[in-house]
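Same chain as my last thread, 202 residues:
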Amino acid sequence: MNPLLSILRRPTDQIIRGRLLPPDDGAGILWSVEADEVLELSALGAIAWEGREDKPAGSLYNWTGFNLLCNAAPAEFELNGEYFYSIDSFAEALKFQEGTPDRGACAMAPVMEAKRLARRIRGKEFTYRDQTIAVGSSEHEAVLAAAISAKVAQHPDVQTALGETGRARLVFPLSYSRHPGALARVTPLALMIERWRLIHQP
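reply #2:
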């Protein structure tokens, strides 16, 4: 059996935990540079205009199509009995103590509110399912990959948008730092693995 195929048949979080992901590369590694094109996982227009009455028309400013792949997209999902408004909301909620009202509020908040709620929390570890996990570790990346996998699995419109990316190499736009954090590292690879599963599922 092709070694890559045997790897891809494992759960996404196990693949990420196994450190196929270069620590300083937000570009993803599943497809070669010979892919048809490169697509950035960003929906800045939709984020900036969300909730505004004077929002321009057009797909760039709405949570639809390719924008649904953005971590800020309001694609509510359930993971291990908890509900989250978006992947970004999930990532921010991890900063709060497990089981607290603050964590629950952050989990269901849109991206800008979730970031505001968690802005002063800068710990080196967090607790998830009674396990202490170091920020930026392969275990942290695996938790984020599991959330992305859950989002894709629970939203047919997200699956459609992912399928429409074809063979493009997905990349995370590095706006603030040359050294992406765990979510920026995980997102492209996790989405490309989920795309591979969608294409090859029986």
